Amino acid sequence: MEFFAIARTKRDGQTIQEQVTVARMGEYCDTIVTLDGDDDAGTIGTVWGEFPVQRQIIRGGVRFALTTCPNALAWTITTGFPPAPDDVVIHGTINRTEHDEDFIESIVEFLEAWRLGLETVQA
Fold first, then answer.
1. Contacting residues for 120 by C-beta, under 8 A, at least 6 apart
2. How many domains does the chain have?
3. Residue of 16, 22, 120 whose CA lies nearest to 77
């Protein structure tokens, strides 16, 4: 399944890559507690529990993945591409075509928290 949120902010890809790190996740998403981490890897606490997380630099931004998540939750934070090339797109995925409504709602809320944080924290 796919999920999207659009942050109305003018960050460019390089700024996203420099600032949105594992160590700084909690600044951008108030539903995350970084338990241990550096720029590219660590352990975070989420509404779903504790997970190892990895960050990759990708074209236009970054990709995060919860490496032991049973639903393979991953999300990207990018700019310069559809559906909103002038803004920042938060795109989340899980490896299921269906899931229970509470879990789906928690993912929507997770992406919304990222959107609010990216719009609030100064670049």
1. none
2. 1
3. 16
Nearest Cα neighbor of 80 from 99, 62, 65, 59 is: 59
Distance separating alpha carbons of residues 44 and 55, to the nearest angstrom? 12
Domain encompassing residue 73: 2-120
Residue 60: left if φ>0, alpha if ψ -120 to 50, beta else—which one? left
For residues 28 and 118, the answer to whether their CB atoms sit within 8 Å is: yes
Q: Are 35 and 50 in contact (CB under 8 A)?
A: yes
The 10s digit of each residue's pLDDT in 58-101 is: 999 999 999 999 999 999 999 999 899 999 999 999 998 888 99
CATH number of the domain within which 102 lies: 3.30.530
